[in-house]
Description:
The structure holds two protein chains of two kinds. Chain A is 44% helix and 12% strand. Chain A has helices at 15-23, 27-34, 65-74, 88-93, 122-127, 130-144, 155-159, 164-175, 192-206, 232-243, 257-261, 274-288, 300-314, 317-345, 358-368, 383-387, 399-402, 418-429, 456-466, 475-483, 502-518, 521-525, 528-531, and strands at residues 37-39, 80-85, 116-117, 148-153, 178-182, 220-226, 246-252, 268-271, 292-294, 349-353, 372-377, 449-451, 470-473, 488-490. In chain A, the strands form three sheets. A six-stranded mixed β-sheet of chain A has the order 1-12-11-10-13-14, sandwiched between helices. A four-stranded parallel β-sheet of chain A has the order 3-2-4-5, sandwiched between helices. Chain A has a four-stranded parallel β-sheet with strand order 7-6-8-9, with helices on both faces. The relative contact order of chain A is 0.14. Chain B is α/β, with parallel strands linked by helices. Helix content of chain B is 43%, strand content 14%. In chain B, α1 (24-32) packs across α2 and α13 (331-344) packs parallel to α14. At the A-B interface, α3, α4, β3, α5 and α6 of A face β1, α1, α2, β3 and α3 of B.
Amino acid sequence: MVKKKDITNGLPDPSELMEEIIAKYPPKIAKKRKKALVANNPDEGPEIQANVRTIPGIITQRGCTYAGCKGVVLGPTRDIINLVHGPIGCSFYAWLTRRNQTKPAEGEDNFMTYAFSTDMQDENIVFGGEAKLKDAIREAYAIFQPKAIGIFSTCPVGLIGDDVHSVARDMKAELGINIFGFSCEGYRGVSQSAGHHIANNGVFTHVVGNNDRPREGKFQVNLLGEYNIGGDAFELERLFEEAGITLLSTFSGNSTIKSMEYSHTADLNMVMCHRSINYIAEMMEEKYGIPWIKVNFIGAESTAKSLKKCAEYFDDDELTAKVDAIIARETTKVEAIKAKVKPKTEGKLAMMFVGGSRAHHYQDLFRELGVTTVSAGYEFAHRDDYEGRHVIPNIKIDADTRNIEDLTVTKDEELYRGDLAEKKKALLEKGYRFSDYDGMMPEMNKNALVVDDVNHWETEKLIEFYKPDVFCAGIKEKYVVQKYGVPLKQLHSYDYGGPYAGFEGAINFYVEMERMLGTDIWKLVDAPWKHEPEIVGSFAINE
Amino acid sequence: MEPIPMIKDKRSFVSTRNACKLCSPLGASVALKGIEGCVPVIHGSQGCATYIRRYMISHYKEPVDIASSNFSEETTIFGGVQNLKIALKNVINQYRPQAIGIATTCLSETIGEDVNLLLHQIKSELHEASWPALFSVSTPSYQGTHMDGFHATVFEVLKHFTLKMDKLDKINLFPGFVSPADIRHLKEICSDFGLDATVLPDYSTALDNPVWNHYHRIPQGGTPLNEVKTCGGAYASLELGAFCEVRQGGKSDGETVSPAMWLEKEHDVQRFASILPIGVNSCDAFFDKLQKLSGKALPEKYEDERGRLLDAYADGHKYVFGKKAVVYGEEDFVLGLCSFLDEIGIQVVVAASGANTGKLQQKIKEHCPVHADTIKVMSDADFEVINEISHDLKPDIIIGNSKGYYIARNLDIPMVRVGFPIHDRLGGQRILHLGYRGTQNLFDTIANALIDYKQSHSPIGYKYM
C-alpha cells in the first residue's frame, strides 16, 4: 500500500507540485493555469483565477450554458413544461440526468420525467424553426394543459435567427398561459454558470411576483439554490416544518411554479448554492426588500448553525426553543453514528473538485469525520465563491460576463418590505451577517492546494502527490480516478445515494464514507505476486 | 410566422417526447474510441463533449476522453479555426495520439465550417514536429441519429486511410454499434475460423478496460491504423447490420452507401452482409458466410454452442412461447432481436426505433416469417409513443436500453436490458448479444425475467418453476 503523507504538522507546501504541473504546459497556457492554482493561505486571502474560458483541447469537467439553465436551475421544476428547442441530443442528455427528486400531490402535474424537444431537422435549420416551435408549444398545451412552458435555446437556435422570446410572447397571447424563453445557447458563456444567470433572470422576470398571496405562516422563508438531488430538499422540508418555519418556495428542488410566483412574499431568503442563485436573492432584495443570508445544510454542524441563524433572524422565543430542541434531538442521533464511523475515517485525506458550492460545503461533512481536505476546487464558480463576496467589486469584467445581461431592478413601491429593511439594519448592528459569503478558501487549511477548473493532467499529479483516500467529483472523473486505485465519490449524483443534506443526510454520508474508506477492495488491485521479488537467481547451482 | 406549407411532418406529433435516439456526434465518438491511438475532438460547444462523455461513461464505466474546440460567442461569429488549432495542439501535446478524429456538431455545421479545409490551413500554419493523422467527419445532430454518426465515422476513417493495393489474405469486419463483449466474441470467432480480420471499429478494450498498473492516457486497443490502410486489400468485407448506409453529400435525399459497399465499389472488396447474428437463423447465416470466407468447416466449439442453444430453446419453450414483447432501440438492434424473438415464439407487438430510414418495416417482414404481419413497426418513434401503444397492446416483456424502464415500471412487466445506454445496471458493456453464445445469454435472461416475474407475482412460493 502507498505511504500516506504525514500532515500532523500541517499540509505540505505544494509549490513544487504546482511547478511540476505548470512546467508541462506551453508558455501561454502555463501563464493562464498558473493563476488558477493557488496554495491557500487563509490569513492573506490570495487571489485565484476563476470563471475564465477553458482552453480548447484540455478536457474539462465543465458543461455548457444550456446545461446550467435547463439542466440545473429549471430542471427540477415539475409543473413547467421545459421544451428544448434544438436538435435531439441536448434534450436527451439532460433527461433526469441530475437525479432531482420531486413529490407531487395526487393529481398534480409532474413533467420532470419527460424530455421534450423540437428535435430540429435539416429543414428547420435551413428554413427556420419558429413554426415548428410554435406547433410544439400548441401541441404541449393541447396534451398537458400545463401552467407554464419554458423554452430553452440550444446552439443553432441563435445562429439561424429563431427568436424564442417573440415566439414565447405570441404563444402566451394565443394560449393564455405563462410562456417564457431562455437564450441559453451552449456557446454563450464560460460554463454552466452563464446558464444559471440566464435562468435567474428569466425566472425573476417571468415568474417571481406573479401572485401576491396573503401570508400563511408566521415565519416565511425561501430556500434558494437547493435542487433536491437524492432527496436533500425533503430532509430540509422536514426540519423546517417541525420548527414551524413556512418554506414558501425552494429554487428549485421539489418546487411548483405557483410557489415561485408568490416567493416574493417571504421574510427571508436562505441561499444554499451561492453560485447558481445569488442573482435572484440580490434582485428580490432590491425589488421587494427581502434580505438574504448564506446557509449550508451539508454537515450536521452546518445544519445546526444554519437553523440557528434562521431562528436568530426571526428572534422569536417559541421558534428558538423549537429549533434548539430539534438540534438537540437530531445531534444525539448523529453523534451515535459518528462515534461508530469516525475512528475508521479519522486522519484520512480527501480532495474535491465539483460544482460551484459543493466543493466547499462537503468539506464540513468531511471535517466532522476527521477527514482533511488537502485540495479542492470548483468546476464553474467565480472568484467570490473562493475568496468571498468582498472581492466582487474587483472582479474583472470580461467579454463573457458582459454577454449575460445584468437586469436593472427597481424597488417595487407597493410591495417593498420596509419593515424587513429596518430589521436587517438593526440586526447588522448586532453583528448578524447578511448578503455575505466568505467563500471556500478562508475555511481551508494553510497550504491546501486550490485549483479552479481542474483537468486530467492536474488530477493525475494531485493524486500522485497527495495519495488521497477519497476523491470527490462527478461521473466523468469517476473511472479516471478509480483507475489510479483511489475511490471516487460522486457529489453531483451522489453515486445514486443520498440524501446528504441535513441531519439524516449527514448520517447517510457518514455511513457511506465508512463503506468507502473502510473497504479492502483497493488492496486487491495490487495483486500480491506483483510485489514479490522476482525469483531470478534463486536457483543456486552447486559447482 | 405561419408554418411553411412545404414542410410536412411525417409523424403525428410535432415535438419529441422522450427521444428513442441520441445525437450523431455521440455515435461518432463511440466509433472513434475504436481506432487505436485516436483521440476524438468535438468541434463545437464544450457542452457537447461533456454531455457525450457523461453518457458514454455512465454506460461503459471507463474513462472516456473527448476533447472539444470549446466554441465561444466570438467563435460562432468568426469561425472555429483558431479554437480548433489550439485544441489540436493541446491534444497532441497531452496525448501524443496517432490520430485525431474531429466530429462536427450542429453548431459548427450551422455556421458552415469546412473542417477539412481548416485542417489544411492549420497544418500549413502550425509546424508540429510530427502530425498525427487528422481526419474529420460531418455529424450535424439535426440529421438522423447516433447511428448515422457512427457509420459516417467508420466510412470517413476508411476513406481517409485505405490505400489501393494488391489483394491480401484478410477480411474486413464491420460489427456495427455492438457491445465491447460482442466485438471480443466476433474477434474470437474470426480467429477460430483462421480468418485475419480487421474489425472496424474495435473498442472492445478501450471501452472495457481492466484495472491498470499505470494510467494510460489513451486506453490500449482499437483498430490499428496500419490495418485500416490495408482494408482495400482485403478479399472480402463482412458487414453486420442492414442499416449501415451513410448519406452522401450531406443531403437527406442524396445517395447512400455503406462502408462495405464503398470498399466494393472503390477497392473491389467483395461485400457480404448479414443482419446482427442474434438467434439461430441469423447466426446460421452468419457462420455460413464465415465458412465460405475461410473455406473451413464450423469449428466444433460453435457446433456445440448451437446445439446447447437449441436444447435451451426446447427446455425454455414453455416460458417464452406466445409471450408478447415490446422491442426498441437502434434499427439494427431491433431487427436482430425481432428475428430472434420470432423464432422462439415470442410475438413482438411493437418494434420501434427513433431512427427513420424507412426500411425497418420491410426488413422486419423479411426476417420475421412467423409474426411478420402482426408486428407493429414504428420508425421515428419516441418513448411516449411507445409507452402509449404499449398500454393498449399489453406486452409481457420489454426489451431495450435503460431509457424505456419507465414503461416497464408503469405496466408492471419485466424488462431485459440490451444495447445502449444502460446506466441502471452494471455490465452494460459486457452484455453479449451476438453469436450462438450471445443468443444463449439473451435467451436465458429473457426466459428468467419471465420466470422471475411469474414467481414473484405468485401467491405460492414455488421453488420449482
